[in-house]
Structures are given as C-alpha cells and as structure tokens.
C-alpha cells in the first residue's frame, strides 16, 4: 500500500465573503497520478495555489510527507500553475539555466530535464518560436529542476492539439516510475480517465468524491451527479 505524500485537512480559502474552497480534505498517495477534476470555477486552481504556497489558506492544514507543510517544503514541490514561466527570447537551455542559477543546480541537471521532457534537440530555437505544447513541456522542465517529490500541474493540456495532449499524457504517466507524485487538474473527464490512478472531484469549492478511478464509462455519471448536487445546494442556499 502506498504511503501518503500530501494531505489537506478541512482546507478553506475565503476571498472577502466568498468561500472559494470549503473544508477540503485531500489524501494523495505517494508515486501516483492524482487527478483533480472539476468544472471551470470549481476551486481547483485555488486549492493548488495553497498547496504550492502561492495563496495562504484561510483555515485548515496541509501536511506534506507526514509533517505540517512549511515553505521549506517547496524545495521538494514543483509546479506549473497557469502560464509557463518562460522567457520567449531565450532557448530552452537558457531558460533552464536562469532557474538553475537561482536553485544552485549544475548544468548536468539541465540536460537531464531537457531529456525528460523531450526538448533536448531544440538547440538555438527561441522559446517564443515553440508550439504551445513545447512551452508546456518547458514549464514542466523548469518545475522538475529541483528534483521534486511532488509535481503540481494545473490544467496542463488546455489549448494543446491532440498530438501535444498525447505527448503530455505519456510524460505524466512516466513520472511515478521516477519517484515523482503528480497532482494534475482538469475539467476534461476523458483526460483524467486516461491519466490518473486516483481522483478527487470538486464542485462549488467542495470535494464531492475522492478515491480510485470508477469503472470504465462511469466517471461521467459520477461527475455529473456531484456537479448537479452542488448546483442544487447553491440554489437553495
């Protein structure tokens, strides 16, 4: 049985009077792909921003590798939230070098992550000339530089063409074999169904389901049930 790498306990985030995330208790097993599913505006990004230290929780607790989360844990967490942090006038290698200097990482590690994300042969091509899929992979490479135990990817397939989606899916599936746990969010059911080992379904800032992947073709039924129940609660609130 896998150990747990990340837990959130009744995690809540309030913006003024609006609760974006409400008492969410996640449990993410080590060395798996955990799919965080939810409609747009469900609270997925807000939850991931708290896990990666971008936002401070209003209440609740995050535990990482068995202890209360602190900013020191960011040394073992990589993240790609929203737009890849890419300098478009630099090559892939140069983009990674900028980050490597900050982290104190040797050039050998740059070569390793370029190989991991299949960008080793881009040479002198500037990142501004990359396809969206290549930029996403470069963003993931930057997140991998510090050899994270946990990799957080927020809607990574948005805007990608079918080939880009397939490449990214295959890459994500390889990470647990390399000792990297992945949390990947999406509103695309088929993508999570093909990528994740475990799932959490969020609607209206509330976690409606958490556990193993339902039987084939049952995910949509479960997702719609949770989304409709939450919509009903909001109408009667």
From TrEMBL:
It is an enzyme of class 3 (hydrolase). It holds the Pfam family ABC_tran. It comes from the Bacteria. InterPro entries: AAA+_ATPase, ABC_Gallidermin_ATP-bd, ABC_transporter-like_ATP-bd, ABC_transporter-like_CS, P-loop_NTPase. One of its GO terms (molecular function) is ATP binding. Its EC number is 3.6.3.-. Keywords: ATP-binding, Hydrolase, Nucleotide-binding, Transport. Belongs to the ABC transporter superfamily. This is Putative ABC transporter ATP-binding protein YxlF. It comes from Clostridium scindens (strain ATCC 35704 / DSM 5676 / VPI 13733 / 19). The lineage of its organism: Bacteria, Bacillati, Bacillota, Clostridia, Lachnospirales.
């Amino acid at each position: 049985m896998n150990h747990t790498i990340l837990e959130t306990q009744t995690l809540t985030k309030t913006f003024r009077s609006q609760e974006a995330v409400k008492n969410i208790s996640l449990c993410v097993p080590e060395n798996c792909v955990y799919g965080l599913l939810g409609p747009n505006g469900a609270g997925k990004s807000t939850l991931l921003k708290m896990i990666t230290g971008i936002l401070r929780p209003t209440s609740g607790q995050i535990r990482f590798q068995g202890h209360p989360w602190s900013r020191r844990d960011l040394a073992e967490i990589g993240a790609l939230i929203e737009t890849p942090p890419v300098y478009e006038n630099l090559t892939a290698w140069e983009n990674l070098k900028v980050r490597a200097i900050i982290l104190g990482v040797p050039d050998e590690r740059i070569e390793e992550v370029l190989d991991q994300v299949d960008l080793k042969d881009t040479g002198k091509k500037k990142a501004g000339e990359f396809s969206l899929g290549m930029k996403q992979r470069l963003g993931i490479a930057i997140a991998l530089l510090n050899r994270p135990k946990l990799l957080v990817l927020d809607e990574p397939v948005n805007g990608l063409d079918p080939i880009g989606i397939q490449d990214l899916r295959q890459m994500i599936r390889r990470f647990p074999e390399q000792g990297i746990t992945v949390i990947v969010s999406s509103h695309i059911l088929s993508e999570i169904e093909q990528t994740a080992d475990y799932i959490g379904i969020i609607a209206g800032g509330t976690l409606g389901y958490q556990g193993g992947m339902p039987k084939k073709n049952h995910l949509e039924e479960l997702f719609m049930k949770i989304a409709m129940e939450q919509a009903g609660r909001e109408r009667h609130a």
